Amino acid sequence: MLDVLDIRSRFPALQRFANGKTPVFLDGPGGTQVPLVVIEAITDYLTRCNANTRGGFTTSRETDVVLRHAHEAVADLLNASFPEEIVFGQNMTTLALHLSRSLGRTWKPGEPVVVTRLDHDANVRPWLLAAADAQAEVRFVSVREDGSLDEDDFNRKIIGAKFFALTCASNATGTMPDVVRLTHRAKEAGALVALDAVHYAPHGVIDVQHWGCDIVLCSAYKFFGPHVGILWARRDILESLFAYKVRPAPETLPGRWMTGTQNHEGVAGVGACVEYLAGLGHGSTRRQQIVDAMTAIREYESSLGAQLLSGLRAKPGVKIWGSQTMAGRAPTIAITVQGQNAADVAARLWGDEVYCWAGHFYALELAEAMGVLPQGGFVRLGLVHYNTPEEVQRVLRLL
Ligand SMILES: Cc1ncc(COP(=O)(O)O)c(C=O)c1O
């Protein structure tokens, strides 16, 4: 059981007032708030051990320790086999573009590269660009009317595929495809599988070994950390692919993928953020604690999401996109209001210090397929583990 009041007390942003009201942060899918321990880790790094890496002096050695801790902590978060398989970078988009150039060099003209219409463009466009350079064939898996992935279409498109990119959860409608089943099928078809866990990460357990995928991308600012992107790939992939890097940079992992000097203070914050999550769970190892915490988070968010969905279903004129219940979805709820532009609906909520986003959120193909762009896209109400039933009721009253 999560102690949500205690959790909230650890986030300075959740203590603030704006225009005499307590804000309701439903903008988590665009970036979550950050607990004090993460802020302190960033400050502490800059205060005490700000230096470049691999020097013999104290601050540099301390920097190496901080970075090593972050690699180990994120390896536990993802259940990676080796901390060196964790690559940090500017954000998910930049890491995907970086990796796509290297992967594309292994693709041959006409080889099928499969992407989906459910995905954020950061898990589509990098692969399209690489496919164009390699003259590979691009196949899009379509979505059904309810916003779920069309698995029949997937079964057709995946045949003979060289590469498959899929999201673990849509950042627009919250739809969570069955990544284990789809990854398994894609691997059977001979494809390398890249999963986008950016939206999924604050909501559930990530297990790259159980999932059987080859690549996972995520971004710490979506799971209570700072603005740092994360790439995991199987060691053999990271070791064998051509890496775009400068000559003096290490040939070993993870250095061959972490171009230039990193955002060390941010990476320090990522390490602290994983410790924060682990601290919400129980277990004798950090991985066990993370699994326990994320399971409790999923359970709590499911109950909160169900309350929001049930209140929304009762409102005439409000359409919920994606699953109408919490089955197969994250607590990220995209709605449209009949006859109203999404930006206008969002502006009414902002006026009452309820923070949410309106638009397509870069889930371009999905917003197009759902036909919502003429009315300004969706209004997205994104719940995370620090939101409360009282906040849900406040939003429902406003709507
Ligand atoms: C599902 C999903 N994938 C990828 C991205 C891109 O992440 P980043 O901002 O770290 O580049 C986002 C950002 O909103 C996202 O929600």
Concise synopsis of the structure shown:
By secondary structure, the protein is an alpha/beta fold. The chain folds into 2 domains: 4-34 and 300-398, Aspartate Aminotransferase, domain 1 (Alpha-Beta Complex); 41-279, Type I PLP-dependent aspartate aminotransferase-like (Major domain) (Aspartate Aminotransferase, domain 2, 3-Layer(aba) Sandwich). It contains 14 helices and 13 strands.
Spatial arrangement of strands, main beta sheet: 2-8-7-6-5-3-4
Measured between the Cα atoms of the first and last residue, the distance is 30 Å
Q: What small molecules accompany the polymer chains?
A: pyridoxal-5'-phosphate
Q: What is the level 1 CATH name of the largest domain?
A: Alpha Beta
- What count of helical segments does DSSP give? 14
Q: Summarize model confidence as the mean pLDDT.
A: 98
Q: What kind of sheet is the major sheet?
A: 7 strands, mixed
Instruction: Give the % helix.
Output: 40-55%
Q: Would you list the SSEs in sequence order as H and E?
A: HEHHEHEHEHEHEHEEHHHEEHEEHEH
**β-strand number:** 13
Contiguous runs where pLDDT drops below 50 for at least 5 residues: none
Strand residue content = 5-15%
In oligomeric terms, what are we looking at?
Answer: single chain
- Write down the overall geometry: globular
- Rg, rounded, reads 21 Å
Q: Give the CATH H-level superfamily of the largest domain.
A: Type I PLP-dependent aspartate aminotransferase-like (Major domain)
CATH topology of the largest domain: Aspartate Aminotransferase, domain 2
